[in-house]
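Folding problem:
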Amino acid sequence: MDLRNATQDCSARGLIFAANLPAAAEKLPVSLVLPKATETNEREQRWAAQDANEHDQMLLAKCLFDMREFDRVASHLQECKGPRAIFLKLYSRFLSSEKEAGSVDKEEHGQEEMVVSAEESEQRQAVARRKRELVAIRDELEQLDRATGLDAFLLYLLGLVLKALGQRAQARSALLRSVHEYPCNWSAWQLLETCVDAVRQPIESLSTETRGAGWMHHAFMAQMLVEQFGGSNQDFAVHVRHLQQLFPESPFVQGLLAVRHYSMREFEDASRLFAQLQKTDPHRLDLMDIYSNILYVMEDRARLGELAHRCAQLDRFRPETCCVIGNYYSLRREHEKAVGYFQRALQLDSKYLAAWTLMGHEFIEMKNTAAAVDAYRHAVDVDERDYRAWYGLGQTYEMLNMPHYACSYYMRAAALRPYDSRMWCALGSCYESSGQQRQAIESYRRALLGSAENEAMAITRLAHLYEDSGEQAKAAYYYQLLVEHAVKNPLSDQPAASGVGSSALHVSGNGQMDELAAACLFLAAFENDRGNVAVAQRYLVQIVDGASSAGASQQRVEEARAMIRAMNQKDTAA
């Protein structure tokens, strides 16, 4: 089974996205063979003979499928017995049920109006019909599996139906069988990823279960690690290295690396890789929504406007295009227009996760908290692993002064992104506001194990919390860490303090300098009480000398000078 056969097999069944990955592998020897499980020749030969006998019916059925006439496909293939025809027939029934239900599968609330409109009644009936159809497809596939077995594509379809019915564990089992039998169905791998509970299931066990699927195993694990851990997991580099050896110029691998830099908030590197990807494939729209997020964060209005214009020229009716244009208007502070484009993206694809989340952000900017909550809830309904939506819910409920709800949502976000310090700092701040000091301390300590982005904030809050609780030694430890952090990480736009070298405190902004000055005052008093007068005076000198460059408040400087005078007078009197 080489890549050309994989592309043909997926295309024949209407799995156009699954066919894209092997087809896009450039400069790869055709002789590359993908691993395949050993099966009985008798069953393979029987399936091949059935598919050959039904070749003419499949030609017409595939034309109807491409025209999105799914009911006609199912009717045309009703009497066919080959696995390829059965797949297209049942897959068409599945898509027809999805098409009918549309976006009517809405969240039911506990308190509903007694009078239900005719439109709502029709929506509920459509959802009920969809569920009955899904159950019928599942039963037919399971009966066929018990009788003659299922090929890899029918196993994928079984997993798809089971996932739609909420039977995630059974779907995961079917999908694992599918990817081992036919590794080159990328749609099966992507669906398997949505069935994995990364919070409760170690990533190592999933790697073991999928090992043996060749390079597709590495592609899946690399994608999984980016989605779940932002690429911070050290195994990501191992999997990408295997892929780069086979696909040195693959857009898929380059896209993985770009998304990894984006997830780790390395925006300059991510922007550079996306620019290279855009130059290599100028008509590409995949991942351009993420590229627009990067340009938005970098506040690069010129490049974001250029990207929006190019995407609109390529295809104005792609959800990614609407997302890019929405980000452009958001950067221009035209939030109503941005919401309009995100809504247009959702009209094109109601399960387009990025649009729900970004629309929630826009409603936050517009102070429309009710609409923001609704958008974020739709996002987690589409994919409960979306940490951005959980984080957005936490922010929204914090704005509404409902810290207990906010803490619950921040905990969900932190569980999904355990190495992202922003999640833990937000949770710690929420615990503080609700008076749960011990939980706040644990959250901030957990933040220090993650990314260094919010390190100074976590250290500062820990120092204050320990000081407020009377644990002076621990407070001194974290205040010392804060001073060391300021010395090691001075901002480049701030000149060093004259006459004191690297030991002076120099950061930009009076608020930050005051925080460091307060830390030095605490440490000076702490060391003075312990009899370490010389050490205490060094902290005080840092405040006075640092003031000449950074601008600490006059009150802090006068306090430091007063403490120095008091120490000198005590030494003179002694």
In short: Residues 541 and 552 are 13 Å apart (CA to CA). Confidence is low (pLDDT under 50) at residues 26-31, 103-115, 492-509.
